[in-house]
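Let's practice the habit of predicting before peeking. Look at the sequence and jot down your guess about where helices and strands might fall. Then scroll down.
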Amino acid sequence: MPKKPTEKGMGKEDIKLQTPKGMRDLIGEEYYRYQGFFEKASEVAIYYGFQPIETPILESEGLFYHSVGAHTDIIEKELYTLRTKGGDRLALRPEGTAPIMRAYFEHGLQSQPQPVMLYYHGPFFRHDSPQKGRYRELRQFGLEVIGSSKSITDALVIRLVNTILTEAGLPDLTIEINSIGDRDCRPIWKRELVNYYRKHAKEICADCRERLKDNPLRLLDCKNPKCQTLKIAAPSVISYLCTGCKQHFKEVLECLEAMNITYTINNNLVRGLDYYSRTVFEISMAPAEGEADGLPLALAGGGRYDYLSRALGSKKQVPAVGVAIGADRVLAAPGVANLLPRLIKKPKIFFIQLGTEAKMKSLSIIEILRHTKTPIAHSLSKDSLSAQLGIAEKVNIPYAMILGQKEVIDNTVIIRDMRSRAQNVVKLDELANYLKTLKA
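Done guessing? Here is the structure:
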């Protein structure tokens, strides 16, 4: 006889004790690594005048259709959508720029001194086939400069993302940059691109034949080996830039050179979203030795999006530029630094308690240590001295603090040096000063 379903129509046999495909739990040290990276990135952003913003994980589905583009992979293949009980159509955010532009208008940020500079980090969702360093629940850190068309702001976000990645322990970076023009000059190049690919329609992959009809700029994004030779010979956008776009691009490159930032112009770099204009860029690193595909590992990408505000219904065009760093790929990259968050320090003392009275007094002792900002570890659920000392040695903590029955009566603790085995009895009212004398 089948099991009776619950009110929601599912029995216990439907429960899977595992995360959904492409998603994962962050526990302990792995969580701290993400927190540490986001703290480092935030520290750089704050120094340069960026303010934090956090947008909802769920947004109106239409926000992404009108911003990202209906014929992009994000919309056609990767968007997680749902319909609420009230009939609203919502989507898990696949990227951060459109929600931040929505917030810019909703909260009247256009009335503040321009540009408005914002940073953010958190989870984003794309129903993609998980690849190396990629997940369906991905974590990003991003920067947005809204309200300025100046070329210096393009160079600023490139400089900051380069600084963040370098200070995360990844110095051997490649910066690729291009300009895809604006609405004055891009249509001419786009027409030439379409004509070129139509002549070779039988030679391209099936996906590119669809892109040729719906989103021809994404022909240059194709990674299929079959299409690479054609990409190399495709019309270059640089040849079709108008005077304004040429000057803007020239100024961006001059700013990068003035900051001693090495870059490569990549004529095939277009980025895949509809809202980009003029400057686009990607930052990557060489593949690890022995990687099968031998392709560079893309860590960050962004560009200018001067037309996004109009796509979202604004009567006013608001120039802007931004970048997103893929935190998952950064933290999986070889050589990345172990950036622990500021609140997490390696324990200096392992606190050991013996007996019921000591256990009851333990939390008060721990509060003394917290007020002296002494990082500790403990195992209050353990009772035996040998078990607790064994844990202290295993985690390689330099000192142990022992509180037993006698110490509870005497208002003292024993401080043991785990390296020399020397130990001292210290009165509780002298503990704070004594801890300052201990060498790590």
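How did you do? The mean pLDDT is 87.
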